[in-house]
Design goal:
The complex is a heterotrimer of chains A (about 100), B (about 130) and C (about 140). Chain A is an alpha/beta fold and about 100 residues long. Chain A has a single domain, classed as DsrEFH-like (Hypothetical Protein Ychn, Chain: A), CATH 3.40.1260.10. Helix content of chain A is about 30%, strand content about 25%. Chain A has 4 helices and 5 strands. A 5-stranded parallel beta sheet of chain A has the order 4-3-2-1-5. The radius of gyration of chain A is 12 Å and the shape is globular. In chain B, helix 2 links the parallel strand 2 and strand 3. The longest helix of chain B has 14 residues. Chain B has one domain: Hypothetical Protein Ychn, Chain: A. In chain B, helix 1 packs parallel to helix 2. The model of chain B has no long low-confidence stretch (mean pLDDT about 100). Chain B is globular. Chain C has about 140 residues and is of the alpha/beta class. Chain C has a single domain, classed as DsrEFH-like (Hypothetical Protein Ychn, Chain: A). Chain C is built from 4 helices and 7 strands. The longest helix of chain C has 12 residues. The chains are: A alpha/beta (about 100), B alpha/beta (about 130), C alpha/beta (about 140). At the A-B interface, helix 4 and strand 5 of A face helix 1 and strand 5 of B.
């Protein structure tokens, strides 16, 4: 059973997202929330990292955290799905464990 | 499904407590159970009833207390972390010779074993921190 | 439910240097308390977390308690699986020689002293994460 990895730090400020991506297994999910959502914006320098490094895992971003930071769903890079808190809960249920990269 | 939730940060400086609260609310709305919310490190600061945020801001302590009241949640504040940061219930205040207590309604002070137990009893343990 | 049925795999993920924040100390506190619950415990030291195990910590000048000796006592608490990420060490200019020797006595092997520290590649660390029941991050 796969793992849900959560990242709450901006990749522009901290290395948590990178560390997380270095430790995901095939079939895992990565959820970016809180300040980490800034890493999901189209044209940002971490999009290439997200896609190239881990094509085998599913990428999610928390909608309310995007909205709070003025990022519209249309601004999100392709291949990253937007979920709400209920979707966060569903991801925790669908995976066998949750690993927080603080 | 049964969740355990860990809150590692205090209110207002970091978003951790807000995120944990909204996650907990969403989980309950979906019919899941929350075995326990454990407040550790600065997270114990969510459990003082002496906070007075501005009226146009959310009151995280009150939100947690109300959620606990409505859903009979077990909100546990780590005793060692609480003592370091001046979060006391009546018993602790008496034991430590302090002149008052500040634990908020719905919160209780207990040991780290409660965190381990949450890990054992819950189907998923979700950590919110910094 | 029997204790055996309740035995879960717990992983403590340590990614920060000690003293700058309280997380290293409080992670250790949970590990020590948790030992009484007889779970299957592993500790992961990733990123700056490897500094928690560096030898020669001297906190006299910063006015904080030096808790590094406690790691050496973990074996007495049946905590014997300390996984240190090889790449995290290398990226910081460290080698395993820079770490405290941490050992345990194996009661099934005539109390032979064995190392608790396991140097672990990043890919093995990912596998370790994938086999846990509970992950506590600090």
């Amino acid at each position: 059973m796969p793992t849900l990895h959560t990242v709450n730090k901006s990749p522009y400020e901290r290395s948590s997202l990178e560390s997380c991506l270095d430790h995901v297994a095939e079939g895992d999910s990565v959820l970016m929330f809180e300040d980490a959502v800034v890493g999901a914006r189209r044209g940002g320098k971490f999009i290439a990292t997200l896609k190239a490094e881990r094509p085998s895992c599913a990428l999610y971003v928390l909608g309310p955290d995007l909205a709070a930071r003025g990022i519209k769903p249309a601004d999100i890079a392709e291949g990253i799905s937007v979920v709400d808190y209920g979707g966060f809960v569903d991801l925790a249920v669908a995976n066998a464990r949750v690993c927080a990269w603080l | 499904m049964r969740f355990g939730i860990v809150v590692n940060e205090g209110p207002y400086t970091r978003q951790a407590s807000d995120s944990a609260y909204l996650f907990a609310k969403a989980a309950l709305a979906k019919g899941h159970e929350i075995f326990r919310v454990f407040f550790y490190h600065d997270g114990v600061n969510n459990g003082t009833r002496f906070t007075v945020p501005p009226q146009d801001d959310r009151n995280l302590q009150r939100l947690w207390s109300e959620l606990a009241e409505t859903h009979k949640l077990d909100l546990v504040v780590c005793i060692a972390a609480a003592q370091r940061r001046g979060i006391l219930d009546a018993n602790e205040a008496k034991r430590q010779g302090k002149d008052g207590d500040n634990i908020a309604p719905g919160f209780r002070i207990s040991g780290l074993g409660q965190l381990i137990e949450a890990g054992i009893q819950a189907d998923r343990l979700v950590v919110f921190g910094d | 439910m029997s204790e055996q049925a309740n035995r879960k795999k717990f992983l403590y993920v340590n990614r920060r240097a000690p003293y700058g924040t309280i997380y290293a100390l409080e992670s250790l506190e949970v590990v020590l308390i948790g030992a009484a619950f007889e779970q299957d415990v592993s500790l992961a030291f990733i990123d700056d977390g490897v500094y928690q195990l560096v030898a020669g910590q001297d906190t006299a000048g910063v006015g904080m308690k030096n808790f590094s000796k406690t790691y050496r006592a973990l074996g007495d608490y049946e905590v014997r699986k300390l996984y240190v990420e090889r790449e995290s060490l290398a990226e910081r200019g460290l080698t395993v020689e820079d770490l405290m020797p941490i050992t345990y006595e194996d009661e099934d092997d005539d109390y032979a002293e064995k190392p608790s520290i396991h140097l672990t590649d990043r890919s093995e660390m990912a596998r370790l994460i994938a086999e846990q029941d509970v992950i506590l991050s600090f």
